[in-house]
Design brief:
Elements (H helix, E strand, L loop, with lengths): L36 E3 L12 E4 L1 E3 L2 E8 L2 E7 L6 E4 L7 E9 L5 E14 L2 E11 L2 H7 L3 E5 L7 E6 L4 E6 L19 E4 L1 E3 L2 E8 L2 E7 L6 E4 H6 L4 E10 L5 E14 L1 E11 L2 H5 L6 E3 L1 H4 L2 E6 L4 E6 L4
Parallel strand pairs: 5-10, 6-9, 16-21, 17-20
Antiparallel strand pairs: 1-9, 2-12, 3-4, 4-5, 4-8, 6-10, 7-8, 8-9, 11-12, 11-22, 13-23, 14-15, 15-16, 17-21, 18-19, 19-20, 22-23
Length: 326
């Protein structure tokens, strides 16, 4: 198990997973609400001085967090493209039906949403209490990655705080903030001069940023569950965005279905900073747009790998502190 983390594999050896792309109705009718975050009992950390810290684990380009819920221990996928807490039906079968919400199943049919009440979600020394989770089948991800996946940690869990994602140190820091979004700490670190700030807005559950390709502006969602940059193929064709074709393959979605995609290389995209020679998947965004999510692409790992990413949900500001070049 341990030796799977931080391994490098080429995209040809596994199906890339863009977790937020095919949630169907779950994205837009989530039962998730803003959560309050607690230190677990027995912790000696002074939270008036120190932020909360959670270890991050990399499995290929998926970001995992070790956790415990309802007596089960395993890993959660850190996925800001998900609306809130999502549990894997493979491990939590005692769910209830919510007839007020409809979601799309593996067979494409609509059915009542599956929900489960969670008293306590533990992520190391950090806890979330009184959660209502959506329950979907994520067993296909477990089989592909050979790791126990308890579920997804979505954006609604963190809306009341500021997050700092540092992939080089494998740490997620959680800063408590006041009503204005200022950190509530005596020794708050100062922002560095080369830190890049970008305002964002929400498109459904997604954090929407402005990006630039060939001097033209596009709406790109920041989704920590996206292993690879994903662009709408219709937009790529319409705007004649040059990308070099690498291969054609299938995209594995959270409902277990596969969609035809092309794997390409984009020479440059600017999202606060310039990312060069980015492996890019192109596919049809029709399903997202049918639910009112009007973004042109998704990005996750490539942005996090370029620098420390800080998200202030109250001020709706995303910042990037570029990593020093090796």
């Amino acid at each position: 198990m341990k030796n799977q983390f931080n391994q490098t594999k080429t995209f040809k050896k596994y199906f890339p997973m863009i977790l937020g792309l095919y949630f169907g109705g779950l994205l837009f009718t989530s039962c998730g609400v803003q959560s309050e975050i607690y230190w677990t009992e027995g912790s000696s950390v002074d939270t008036s001085i120190s932020p909360l810290q959670i270890p991050l684990y990399k499995l290929n380009k998926l970001i995992l967090i070790k956790g415990e819920v309802r007596g089960e221990s395993g890993y959660f996928i850190f996925d800001t493209g998900a609306p809130g807490l999502v549990l894997n039906e493979a491990h939590f079968e005692d769910y209830q039906l919510d007839p007020t919400r409809k979601v799309t199943g593996v067979n494409g049919q609509l059915h009542d949403a599956h929900i489960l009440y969670v008293r306590n979600l533990k992520l190391g020394k950090v806890a979330f209490k009184q959660q209502t989770a959506d329950v979907i089948d994520l067993s296909h991800i477990e089989k592909k990655r050979n790791v126990k996946i308890l579920g997804l940690l979505g954006v609604d869990l963190f809306r009341g705080v500021e997050l700092e994602i540092d992939l080089h140190k494998h740490i997620l820091k959680i800063y408590k903030t006041d009503k204005e979004g200022n950190r509530l700490y005596a020794n708050t670190p100062k922002y560095k001069s080369n830190q890049i700030s970008m305002p964002f807005k929400y498109s459904g559950a997604f954090i929407e940023l402005q990006a630039e390709i060939n001097n033209k502006s596009y709406r790109i969602a920041f989704d920590t569950g996206s292993e690879t940059l994903l662009l709408d193929k219709n937009l790529v064709n319409r705007d004649k965005i040059y990308t070099s074709l690498i291969s054609s393959q299938s995209l594995l979605s959270t409902d277990g279905s596969k969609s035809g995609i092309e794997i390409r290389q984009l020479e440059n995209i600017k999202i606060g900073l310039n990312l060069k020679k980015v492996t890019t998947l192109t596919t049809d965004f029709k399903k997202l747009r049918s639910h009112g999510i009007n973004v042109d692409g998704l990005i996750g790992y490539d942005l996090m790998a370029s620098g420390i990413v800080t998200i202030n949900f109250k001020n709706r500001i995303l910042q990037i502190q570029p990593y020093a070049k090796a």
